[in-house]
Structure formats: structure tokens, C-alpha cells
């Protein structure tokens, strides 16, 4: 079982940056593909970015390309989301998620593909 704890959320002005972290427990972190999702009030949860177990393959939702960067440090059992050029529409609760996989190059971007979820961290972008 994997436990995930997000941190790094907060209030930032339009155009600002934040870096979210997701710390994972357990010895199998390097065998978990990871993802970041977000959910704004009244909206469905949507994928933000995803990364394979090795970190060699990544996926971004179209609206995040060029602004957000997902990365991971398997030695620290942590996945990151660097968010730049933030906009008010990025305001949401951000969640990290994990899925065990034997395939080092695979990433997943559907919420139903993930087995474990963190509690979320609030990101608010003021205009």
C-alpha cells in the first residue's frame, strides 16, 4: 500500500509560480507511475500531468503544456509539479495519485487507472 501526502499549495498571484510535492510512503515508489490531478469547485477531476516509473516519459494536459513540469526523485520517494505562469483558472485542489506497474515506460492519465490518492492541496491563483 502507498500513502501519499501533498504539500506546497497556497495563494499566488496571476503569473506566479508554485511547486507542489507529493511524498510517498512504502518501498515500491519506484514501481509506481504517478499522476497529478486537480478538481475545481463544481467541476470534475481532471488530469494535469503524469510520469512513468523511471521518469523518462511524461504526459501533460493541453492547457498545462509549457507551463507545468512533472518530475520525480525515486531516491526521495517524491514526485513534484512545478507550476509557472499560473492563471486564475488553475485554482483547484491538486491531488497526486499512484499506480503500481511493472512497465517502466508507461504512464497513465485516467483517474480510474490509479489506485492510491493523496488528500489534496489547495492552489488559489488571484487575479
Fold topology:
Layout (H helix, E strand, L loop, with lengths): L3 E4 L2 E4 L4 E7 L7 E8 L6 E6 L6 E3 L7 E6 L4 E6 L8 E9 L15 E2 L3 E6 L1
Parallel strand pairs: 2-11
Antiparallel strand pairs: 1-3, 3-8, 4-5, 4-9, 5-6, 7-8, 9-10, 9-11
Question: Can you describe this structure?
Answer:
By secondary structure, the protein is mainly β. Helices cover 0% and strands 48% of the residues. The protein contains no helices and eleven strands. It has strands at 4-7, 10-13, 18-24, 32-39, 46-51, 58-60, 68-73, 78-83, 92-100, 116-117, 121-126. Strands 2, 4, 5, 6, 9, 10 and 11 form a seven-stranded mixed beta sheet that branches. A four-stranded antiparallel beta sheet has the order 1-3-8-7, with no helix packed on it. Strand 4 (32-39) and strand 5 form a beta hairpin. The chain is globular, with a radius of gyration of 13 Å. The termini are far apart. The mean pLDDT is 96.
Amino acid at each position: 500500500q502507498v500513502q501519499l501526502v501533498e504539500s506546497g499549495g497556497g495563494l499566488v498571484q496571476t503569473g506566479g509560480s508554485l511547486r507542489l510535492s507529493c511524498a510517498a510512503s512504502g518501498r515500491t515508489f519506484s514501481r509506481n507511475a504517478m499522476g497529478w490531478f486537480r478538481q475545481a469547485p463544481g467541476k470534475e477531476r481532471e488530469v494535469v500531468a503524469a510520469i512513468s516509473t523511471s521518469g523518462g516519459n511524461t504526459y501533460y494536459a493541453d492547457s498545462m503544456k509549457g507551463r507545468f513540469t512533472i518530475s520525480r526523485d525515486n531516491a526521495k520517494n517524491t514526485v513534484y509539479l512545478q507550476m509557472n505562469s499560473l492563471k486564475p483558472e488553475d485554482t483547484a485542489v491538486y491531488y497526486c495519485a499512484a499506480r503500481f506497474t511493472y512497465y517502466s515506460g508507461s504512464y497513465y492519465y485516467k483517474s480510474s487507472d490509479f489506485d492510491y490518492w493523496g488528500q489534496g492541496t489547495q492552489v488559489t491563483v488571484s487575479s
